[in-house]
Amino acid sequence: MFEPLISKLNDLRVVLASSSEQRAMLLRSTKIKFEVIPSNFEENLDPKEHTFSDFVEKTALGKVNDVWERLKTDPVKPDIIIGVDTMVAFNGQMYGKPKTKEQAVRTITDLTQTNIPNQVYTGVVIRYRDEVRKFTEVTTVHMSKLTPEEVLAYVETGEPMGKAGGYGIQGIASTFVEKIEGDVNNVVGLPLCRLTQTLKQMILNK
What we know:
Its cofactor is a divalent metal cation. This is N-acetylserotonin O-methyltransferase-like protein. One of its GO terms (molecular function) is nucleoside triphosphate diphosphatase activity. It holds the Pfam family Maf. This protein is α/β, with parallel strands linked by helices. It has a single domain (5-203), classed as Alpha-Beta Complex (Maf protein), CATH 3.90.950.10. The chain is built from 7 helices and 7 strands, in the order H-E-H-E-H-E-E-H-E-E-H-E-H-H. Strands 1, 2, 3, 4, 5, 6 and 7 form a 7-stranded mixed sheet that branches. Helix 4 crosses helix 5. The two termini are 19 Å apart.
């Protein structure tokens, strides 16, 4: 993040429509001033009816729209709302956030039992006043094989819960990630490079 974009953004009301601590941490690293207002959007889209990119973009748009509806009557309306959704695809199947330890064990077992990499899809939607832009960033993650005992030990740490694909690359999962192709921040949950470039196009190129 650099001038003059940072100065322009810091004159605006910027909202991150996410409860993810990892996303907020990444966005803070850019020195943008923003508010965190989690969305109440019910993430209930049917994966079978959408492509991977379409699924994450529609979910991110739902988050943005939900927050906009709640804030649009504020004395100072938000100028920018950023919505994000991340999921993992492996062998043609979509993996979201495991809700139970059993689901986490199945997910991590699937991702670490072959030499097939998984792909992390993050859909980002930016509403800047009345303009809406959306994009999907994809990162490929190669993992080493884990024994059943290692999978269970990882799940018992609690790290997989609440994370798309059941792993947190910024945490213990880094010990079994062999290689990444693409933006590592995308795997954490927010593709900063693509986000910054899109904000520049929307705000500076007017």
